[in-house]
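Same chain as my last thread, 166 residues:
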Amino acid sequence: MDKLDKIKVAMVLDVYDDLSNGAVVSTRRFVHHLREKHDVKVVTIGDQNGDKDRITLPGFYPPIVKNVMQKMEFQFAWPKRRILEKVMAETDILHNQFSFLLGIRTVKLARKKGVPVVSTFHVQPENMLYNVGIKSPFLVKLIYRFFLRTVYNRSDAVICPSPFSE
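reply #2:
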């Protein structure tokens, strides 16, 4: 395949180094296989770790759930607009992995720039709330609505990697 024929993919996810996170393990495999034929940039927190195709953003913890998130080795990425605009200008397709702040802002920017969006439904509100000790059917429903409105209904395609997410 000629260099000009390669699709430029931006893979966006808050964390990329936590190998105990199933979504991260799956995404790393996917990126490895995509890179065999396409140009894939990974937009995430942390260091470049020698990967020239990794674009790093600062991470943050919301104060209320910081301890829980540190135990889970998960950190949110702060979506720096200048960086994301540069990425979208060089991208043929956005693949968003999480429906958190980074995903929401990147999907919105991709739509604005006319970049097609694929999102993966990795995060279930039930699991997210359970991890912080909240069992509320009302909040679960509210978060699903929020995810649908801000990410999944704005995506051209949604991948559901499990029957539960489907």
